[in-house]
Write the C-alpha cells for this entry.
Amino acid sequence: MHTPVQTKSGALAVAAAPAKRLLPAGATSIVLAAGAIGLALVPLVGTPFYLQLFGKIMIMAIFAISLDLLVGYTGLVSLGHSAYFGLAGYVVALASPKYEAASLLLTLPLAMLAAGAAALVIGFLVLRTSGVYFIMVTLAFAQMLYYLFHDTSLGGGSDGIYLYVKPVLSVGGTELLNLDKPMQFYYFIFALMLAVYFGLRMILRSPFGHALVGIKANEHRMRSLGFQVFWYKLGAFVLAGMLAGMAGYLAACQFGYVSPEILSWHNSGNVLVMLLLGGMGNLYGAIVGAVSFVLVQELFSSEALFGAIAKHWQLAMGIFIVLIVLCLPNGLSGLLNRPAKQAPNEADDD
Amino acid sequence: MEFLIQLLNSIQYGLLLFLLASGLTLVFGIMGVINMAHGSFYMIGAYLAYWLAAKTGSLWLAIPLGLAVVILLGVVLEAVLFRRLYGRDHLQQVLLTFGLILIFEELRSILFGDDVQGVAIPALLDFSIPLTENLSYPVYRLFISGVCLLIAAVMYWLIQKTRLGMMIRAGSSNRRMVQSLGININAIYSLVFAVGLALAAFAGMIAAPSASVYPGMGSQILIICFVVVVIGGIGSIKGALVAALMIGMTDTLGKVFLPDFSGFAVYLLMAVILLWRPQGLFRRA
C-alpha cells in the first residue's frame, strides 16, 4: 500500500516501499489472518468469560477503527468520540420495549442514524476549528451530551437504564439471530468488525478516501486544488460517528445497561490510547490496540495477580499510558511495519 | 437583592475559572503544550489545602506550604516529562497528560480515599454581611473575588510591564531567537509551567472552604476551562478573563432560570461563539 508521508518541506511524497521492516512484506497480513482465525475460534475453546471478554475487545476494536478514520486518515484528533458511541447505546436502550425483544433490523440502523445525525450537527460546528481547538471543542460537546443524560430524566439520569431483553433479528416470524445467545452475539460482533474493517479499506481506496489522506497531509494544498475540504471532513466525521454508534449499540446490548459513563471523556480518552497503542492510519492497528489495551486493563485489574492493590489498577494504567507515549509513539503496528521516514511533527501554529 | 447575590456568585465563580484558565492558556500560548492534567492540579491544590490545614491548623499556613509543594512538583514534571513534549503533536501531549490524570486521580484515592471532604473557612473571614433582614452574603466569597482580581492585576503587570514578561512574550513568538540572544529559555519555560500549575492549585486551595473537596473535581473544572479558552481565544489572558466571566454568568443564571439544563447552558454559549467567531473572541489572527 502506498503510504503518503509529509516531508520536512511540507511536500507530499509517496513512499512506495518502506525502507526498514522487521518482517518481510506480507508478513503483516499473515499475522492479521492468524489473529482473525484465533478470534473466530474463541467460542469453540473458551469459557463464557472469554466469550464476553473477546466480544468486548472486538466492540472496542470497531470503536477504535472508527476513530482511526478521523485521527489516522483525516488528521482530526477528536477527544469526544464517546458522544456517538454513548448516544447510540442510549438509543437502543430507550427504543427497546421493556419486556420484549426489539427488532435488530430496526434498532441498529436507528441507533447508527442517531449517532450520525449528532455527528453531523456537532461536526458542522467543530470542523470550523482546527488543531488544539478541535481537541477541546470535541471534548466539550461530548461533555454536553454527558450532562444532558446525567442531569435530566431523559435516560434515567445518573442511574442509567437497563436493557432487559436484547434485540433479535427475525424475518417473517423466523428468528435468525438472537443477541441474548452469547455464541450468536459473539459471531455477530465478529462479522460486523470484519465488515467495518474491509468496508472502510474499500472506502479509503476510493477518491473520497484519497482526498481525506490528502487533507491530513496538506490541507491548504487540497484546498487550492479545488477540493471542498470542509465537506470531505464532515463526511468523514459523520461516517466515523455512525461506526462509533455501531460499537455503542453492541456495547449496550452486551452489558444490558447504559449510564452516562459511556459518554464520559474517559471513554474518549481510552479509545485514543488504543489507537496510539496499536498504531494509527492502517485500520488493523486499531484492532491490535483494542486487543492489547483491554488485555492490559484486565491484567492490571486482576485480583489473582495483584491482590488488594488491583483495585487501584488505574494507577498502573496511567503509568502504562505515559510510557507508551514516551517510548512507542508509532504504536505496536509501527514495530511490525516501520515507515520509511519518521512522520515529522505537524507544523501546527495554533 | 436576590439578584445581587446571584451576580456576586457568578463573578466569584468566573474569577476562579479565570485563575485556572489563565494558567492553561499561558502554558499553551508560550510552550505550545496542551495540558489535560491542568484540572488535576486544581484537585491537588484543594486536597493539599485540606490535608495541610488539618495538620497545621491554619489555612493561612497551608496555602504557602501547598504552593511550595506544587511549584516543586511542576518544576520536576516539566524537566522529566513535559520537556519531551515540546514540538510533538497534540495527540501525544493529550495522551501523556491523560495518563497523568489517571495517575493523580488514583494517588488521590490511595492517599485520601473517595469521600467528600471539607475545609473550614478561616475564623478571620467567617462571617456574613447582612443585605436585608433575612439575606446575607458570606465575606469569604468576596475575599475569593478580591484575591483573584489582585492576581489578575499582578499578572498583567508582570507580563506587560516587566523585563521578565518581555522575555516570556518573546519566547512565545520565537523560541530560537530568544535563545540565541543569550536568554535561558529552558528556565523561563520551567518557570511559566510551574506558575501555571500553581495558579490552578491556588484556585483549588481558596475554593476549598466555600465548595467541597471531592474526587473528580479536577476533570469537571478542566472541561469548563477548555470552554473558557475556546471562547476567549487561546493564549490570550484578556480573552480568558472575559470568557471566564461570561461562563460564570451563564452558569449561575442558568442554574436559576433553567435548573435542569444548567450543565448545558455553557456549551450552548460555546456553540454560538463558534458559529460567530471560530477562533475565539480575542485571538490575534
Summary: The beta strands of chain B are 128-130, 136-138. DSSP finds eleven helices and two strands in chain B. Chain B touches chain A through 46 residues (CB under 8 Å).
